[in-house]
Specification:
The protein has three helices and nine strands; from the N terminus they run H-E-E-E-E-E-H-E-E-E-E-H. The protein has 201 residues and is of the alpha+beta class. The protein has two domains: 109 residues; 69 residues, no CATH class. It is elongated, with a radius of gyration of 25 Å. The two termini are 49 Å apart.
Length: 201
């Protein structure tokens, strides 16, 4: 079945355009093929349970913190003994109109999420550096900075940096100089976010 699906994908790829290629694909114990565009778009071809002569073609979006509804995940089932030109026509008519519209938005959302994650990590590292003895103890699902009492005037400290620009922070018995440094760091982070929001299109 793999050879049949992969062969079908290889015959279909050039019919979709010169930047489409085919490659083997494995997902959850099933073996099939993928149609891959040079810009990152992917169509997965996998066997259909209970229908050995059929393949299901689905779209693949990059991971991003965006809800993708069922109607934005078009798919089609296709007999593997039909001509590749018919599969190319089905993909062009049923999958690509929705996929081509949403895919660049998902790419942008994924890039924005990566930037936010990098900013979270940077702020977490800065907060950890401001409190003597504090350390970054977790990075997922969001950074945690913790101080466990040893010596000095800080009783305890925890900070969780959340992805939507809010933070859960707990300080106990923090000395004035450290508290001022922490609040300055938070203020700068908030101002940067506000400036980006004000200049966003």
């Amino acid at each position: 079945m793999l050879n049949k699906i992969l062969r079908l994908a290889r015959q279909t790829a050039p019919l979709l355009g010169h930047r489409w290629t085919a490659q083997p694909h494995h997902w959850m114990g099933r073996t099939g093929a993928a149609l891959v565009h040079a810009d990152g778009r992917r169509l997965h071809l996998l066997p259909v349970d209970g229908r050995p002569a059929h393949v299901e073609v689905t779209v693949r979006y990059p991971d991003a913190p965006v809800t993708v509804w069922d109607h934005e995940r078009p798919s089609t089932q296709f007999r593997t003994d039909r001509p590749p030109a018919a599969l190319a026509d089905a993909i062009t008519a049923k999958l690509l109109p929705v996929y081509n519209e949403l895919y660049p938005k998902m790419v942008a959302a994924a890039a924005s999420a990566r930037q936010t994650d990098e900013e979270q990590q940077a702020l977490a590292q800065r907060l950890a550096a401001l409190v003597p003895g504090a350390e970054l103890t977790r990075t997922a699902p969001s950074p945690w900075i913790e101080y466990r009492p040893r010596q000095g005037s800080i009783g305890s400290m925890k900070a969780q940096v959340l992805s939507w620009g809010q933070h859960i922070v707990e300080f106990r018995y923090v000395d004035d100089a450290t508290l001022q440094a922490l609040m300055t760091a938070y203020g700068e982070a908030v101002r940067r976010r506000q400036n980006r929001s004000a200049t966003a299109p």
